[in-house]
């Protein structure tokens, strides 16, 4: 009787076993750099326009906060006012929380928090005046573009896209778990 009960429980547990996809920092960084290395225009009415380009983006998963992602990178900024132009290179670090979108089957970053930034080639005091606007625009930009999109041609990723149950950030990896 115990053997039959064991086999029944074992069989049920095998049927309900979750499918797991593990994404490494390297995989996410490659995709992120490929998709975000483009110009992003930002405007505030007629008095301010900027073209921004992200480069050398790197994500660190689960460190120092277990459920967050640290994003670092360089941001080239060309800012224009009606009578003045500025060129700045910003080196910055953000903290963000990953979010999964069911409809798109994609991972996004949300809840950006600026940890630190440094202007590398600027002695212009005007930069500090514009930074809050530019950094807010950057956070909006990053939250619109997915970090990773599940591939429906891959059976495991297609299953996870249909039934994601858990998203977990661990040091060095992101775990997506779906149910059968």
Notes on the protein architecture:
- By secondary structure, the chain is of the alpha+beta class.
- The chain has one domain (25-150): Uncharacterised protein PF07273 family, DUF1439 (Bactericidal permeability-increasing protein, domain 1, Super Roll).
- Helix content is 29%, strand content 48%.
- It has helices at residues 2-15, 25-36, 126-144, 155-162, and strands at residues 19-24, 39-44, 48-61, 69-81, 84-101, 106-119, 148-149, 164-170, 173-178.
- It has a six-stranded antiparallel sheet. A three-stranded antiparallel sheet has the order 1-9-8.
- Strand 2 (39-44) and strand 3 form a beta hairpin.
- The longest helix is centred in the C-terminal third of the chain and has 19 residues, at 126-144.
- The protein is elongated.
- The protein starts with a helix and ends with a strand.
- 18% of the residues are buried.
- Residues 4-16 have low confidence and may be disordered.
- This is DUF1439 domain-containing protein.
- It holds the Pfam family DUF1439.
């Amino acid at each position: 009787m115990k053997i039959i009960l064991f086999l029944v429980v074992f069989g049920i547990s095998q049927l309900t076993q979750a499918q797991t996809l593990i994404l490494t920092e390297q995989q996410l960084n490659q995709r992120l750099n490929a998709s975000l290395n483009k110009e992003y225009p930002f405007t505030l009415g007629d008095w301010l326009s900027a073209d921004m380009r992200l480069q050398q983006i790197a994500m660190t998963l689960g460190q120092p906060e277990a459920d967050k992602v640290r994003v670092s990178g360089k941001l080239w900024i060309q800012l224009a006012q009606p009578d003045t132009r500025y060129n700045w290179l910003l080196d910055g670090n953000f903290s963000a929380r990953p979010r999964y979108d069911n409809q798109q089957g994609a991972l996004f970053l949300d809840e950006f928090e600026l940890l630190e930034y440094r202007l590398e080639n600027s002695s212009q005091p005007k930069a500090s005046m514009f930074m809050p606007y530019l950094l807010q625009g950057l956070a909006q930009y990053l939250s619109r573009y997915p970090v990773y999109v599940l591939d429906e041609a891959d059976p495991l990723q297609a299953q996870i896209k249909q039934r994601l149950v858990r998203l977990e950030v661990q040091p060095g990896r992101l775990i997506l778990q779906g149910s059968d």
